[in-house]
Amino acid sequence: MTLEARLRVEVSSSGAAPGAAAAPRRNVESELERSISRSVDWFLSAQSREGYWWGELEADTTLESDYILYLHILGESKSERIEKLAKYIRERQLPDGGWNIFCGGPAELNATVKAWVALRLAGDAAASTHLDRARKKIHELGGLEATNSYVRFYLAMVGAIDWSLVPAIPPELMLLPDWCPINIYEMSSWTRGIVIPLAIVYARKPGWRLPDGITVDELFLRRGAKPRSFKWDKRVISWKNVFLALDRGVKLYESSPWKPFRKAALARARTWMFERLERSEGLGTIYPAMMNSIFALLAEGGDTTDPLLAREIEFLARYEIEDQNKDTLRVQPCISPLWDTAIAMVSLEEAGLDPAHPSLLAASRWLVANQILGPGDWQAKNRKAAPGGWAFEFRNDFYPDVDDTAFVLMALSRVADPEPSRLRAAIRRGLAWLVSMQNGDGGWGAFDHENNLQFLNHIPFADHNAMLDPSTADVTARAVECLGQMGWSPKHPVLERARAYLRSDQTPDGSWFGRWGVNYVYGTSGVLRALEAVGVASAPECRRAADWLRSVQNPDGGFGESILSYYDPALKAKGPSTASQTAWGLIGLLAVVGSDDPAVERAVAWLISHQNEDGTWDEDEFTGTGFPQVFYLKYHLYRNSFPLYALARYDNLRAGRPKYVGVQVPAEEIQQTNGYWG
Fold first, then answer.
1. Does pTM top 0.90 for this prediction?
2. What CATH number should be reported for the domain whose range is 60-331?
3. Which side of the chain, N or C, has fewer Cβ within a 10 Å radius?
C-alpha cells in the first residue's frame, strides 16, 4: 500500500481529534508539506521574545502534596494556594482511593501517603469518604512502614513520626575525603542537591509540628512499626547489612551529647549550599533540592524576611502554574528552556528553515549567552577539562549536562550566524567539555564523570532509585550523534569506545533501554539516530534494532510504550500510540531502512493524520523519565518537536536532499583545546 493510500485509511479510521485533518489530500507531497509547514508556523509563533522555547514540565501529585506541607512550614497554612493545590490533588484520586505517579498507572504508596497528609493539612477530615478510601489503599499497599525514606523524613521533620524511623543523614558526610568511596561526589548531582540540605535539617531537628488533631498513626499497618527497608538482609554479609549497621552507628553518635565533628560538618554543608545558591535560580534548580534548601535555611534559624531565603522562596514560587478556569494550582518539578530550545531548533533546521532565519539567530544567541564558563560539581572527578557545557534550566551554573550540551551543539552548528567566530568559539568550548565527560567504559552519564559505584545503591536513603549517574545508552547516543554531526570519523578512539559501549548495552532483542525517556522506543531511536550520524547505520546491531522496531509497531502505524515497561520488560513497546513515541520509532527506522519501508510509511501516515489544524499534536501520556520506577515527566513540547523532526527527516530522505552542514569542529582542534580525551 502506498503512503497516499495509507493516509486515506489513517485519516478515515484514526478517530483523530475534530481539529485534525478530516479528508485525504491530493497527494502525499502536499499532505506532508502542509503538515510540516503548519508545525513550523506553530513553533515560530510559540518562540519567546528572548529567543527561547519553553514548555510546561508536568509530574505527579507528590509535588502538590509536598508543596502544601512546605506552605504549612512557612507559616502560610491559611494561604488560598493550599485549597487550589488540594483541589488539584482531589481531582486526581483514583477510583480505588489511591494516587498514581504517571498517567494511567496504578495507585502508588508514597504518592498516596503524601496526598493523604496534604489533604489533612488542607482541612479534609480523616473520616471523609475520599480519605477513608485513601487510608484503606495505603494499608493495602503496605502501610506507612513501607514508604520510602524521603516520605518518612518529611514526616519526622514535622513531628509526625520519630526520627528513629528515618535513615541517618548526618552532615558529617561533608567531611569524608575524596578518596573515601562514600563521599558526596560519588553520589549523583541530584542526590547531592536533595541530601545535603536534609543533612542540615537532620542535625538541627527543627521543632515544626503538624496542627493539633492531625496524626499519621492510622496509616501504619502496625502503629510505630519499623520501616521495611530497615530489615536485615538474610545474608549475613551484604552491602545492605553493612549500611544498616553504619546507620545504627551514626544514630548512636547522633544521640550522644558529644559530637566533635558536627560544627565543622555543618559549616561545610552551609558553605557548599551557599556557593551553589549564588550561581543558580534555586539549588540544582530542581524542585526537591530547592525546597530542601529552604527547609535547611529555616532550620538554621532564618525567617522569610531574610534576603537569601526570600529569594529562594521566590525562585520556587516560579514553578507554580495556576489554572484560573479550574481554580487549581499545580507545580512543576523543574523548568526546561535550554532543552526545549535546542530540540525545537534542530527540528526547525531539519524542516528546512533558513539557517539565517531571525528565529534561529535569536535562539542561537540566547543559547550562546547561556553557555556555562564557570566551575561546577563535574570538576570533582574531571579536573583537566575546561568548562563549556549547557544546563537544562535558565541558570544552573554548577550543573551543565551532557544531553543538553550535545543537543545545543547540534542546534548551533546549523545556524548561519553573521558573527561566525563567536559561534564557533562557543561550539569549540562546548565540544571539548562534552568529550572530556566520556567515562572509562566508553559511555557518558548525564551530569557527572565516572559516577558508578553500584554498592552505594544500598545506602538506606538511596531508595529514590537514582543514587548514581552512570553511563546510559541514550545520553551516550546523544554525544555520538553530536560528534558525527561535527564530522568526526567513526574510527576515532572516542567514537570507537562509545560504539563498543553501545554494543555491550544492547539487549538481546535488539533494543536499548531508555533512562531519560519512555523507554525502549526512546533508547533505541536515539542510538540509531546517533549511529546514522557517524555513518555506521548498516552495522549488524542497527539492523537488529530496526527489526525490533518493526516488530513492535502498533497496528495503527504508531508507536507507544507504557511506563510499566520499567517494571516488566515483557511490556516493552506496548501501549497506545503517542505522537512523541511514534516520532521516535519513525526516526529510528529512517536511520536504518530509509524512507520507502512500509513501516516508515505507516508511521508517517499516523503522524500526519493525528496532527491538529494548528500544527500541534495531542498527548496525555507521560513519555519522559526522571527516576525509573520512582518519578516520571511529561514534557509538553515533546509531542510537537519530535514529530516535526521525524516528518522533516522523512521528507528530506524521500527527496534526496543533502543535510545542511554548518559549523564543524574536527577532533584535532578539540585535542589542541585541552589535550584530554576523557
1. yes
2. 1.50.10.20
3. N
